[in-house]
Predict the structure.
Amino acid sequence: MSTQHYTSPLSERYASKEMQYIFSQDKKFKTWRKLWIALAQTEKELGLDITEEQIEELKEYAEDLNLDVAKEREKEVRHDVMSHVYAYGVQCPKAKGIIHLGATSCYVGDNTDIIIMSDALRLVRAKLLNVIEKLAEFADKYKAQPTLGFTHFQPAQPTTVGKRATLWIQEFVMDLEDLDYVLGSLKLLGSKGTTGTQASFLELFDGDQEKVDKIDPMIAKKMGFQSCYSVSGQTYSRKVDQRVLNVLSGIAVSAHKFANDIRLLQHLKEIEEPFEKAQIGSSAMAYKRNPMRSERICALSRYVMIDALNPAVTSATQWFERTLDDSANKRLSVPEGFLAIDGILDLCINVADGLVVYPKVIEKHLMEELPFMATENIMMDAVKAGGDRQELHERIRELSMEAGKNVKVHGKENNLLQLIAADPAFNLTLEELEKTMEPSKYTGCAKKQVETYLKQIIIPLLEENKKVLGVKTEITV
């Protein structure tokens, strides 16, 4: 491999072989040839003078790309589609006169883009479901594990480890719903000519509108699509690309949120991402266990979120029936958005499948804060023992401030329970107070919520899509 020219990190380090093939030259140009065959077959079926011998010749070389011929031709004519028409014709001398008949460059270019994006979305969909599956297993395993909740990253009412995981899952499920909608709505451009009017085909078929109307549906069926867009300029609306990359951006947002939470939890030493036996966390600090996978998820996710602006601006600035300032941008923004999200999802699967939980650390952090969380219950118990609620509320506020000062100013342990036990206004012993310190009493319906969510939403979803589960990922670095 040459080391003297730039190679994209997306292909070198992050994206899978499967996603790279979807956006490869091989797949692109073989799809062009399939589209030319579909066009020729359709035109023959509708009565044009095209022979079966010509079509068979096209089929014979559908997979046999002579890219060197196309490359040399493009140096002369500066047009990629016509270079490939020429190269195909070199291999198929009997059929060369009917290749691309009546079509414009966007017939192969745009239809191929839709086909490739459809295939890429299906791969993304499969990996997204695998992320959901791994997180669902994690949520179920730790559905009853109490943990300190946080609002504003400040200690708040306890939740469970599994309940927190359902929040990550739910966002990925939203992304799946968006993906399914967009994937289900994708249509081919069809063959509509230079400005979308199909004028060339009306000419080819001597003004026979009925035959012209049949062209797009017949091509769509041959290429495995339900239909083509009803109207277009020379290209399909570039808003299609925007919708697709918005789906990828949404997945990136969810992945970033998940990975950021893991990074924070790893700092707290409560949960860690996978760390291999020989992995080095830092070149200087040998003891470090950096959350490098989660950090990479965040890094790539930011790229995808920003990348989604490209097709938005492109769509907004297309002039009338078409302008070519979309082309160079599309060649970068669409493939690289998919390659990046592919790498993100591989990392998410890897992280979700190997999360390490430290219940003792979680319990330690929870117990340090639980006396504050329990003050409402303590106050109610004191009222039942004959106390005045308003007076007790003020006393518990004052004692909480004193205990907080002991922790933050003096670095001591939380002694709120001892302070309350020593205050006659509460009429409660330390032993009675300590009985209230069972964490599961403060997690509300968290465990039940996890069970219900998994049973009603996630398990049916995974069962419906079980054929795509079990994806094996390989993390390159």
Notes: Confidence is low (pLDDT under 50) at residues 282-287. The beta strands are 146-151, 154-160, 271-272, 356-357. The longest strand covers residues 154-160.
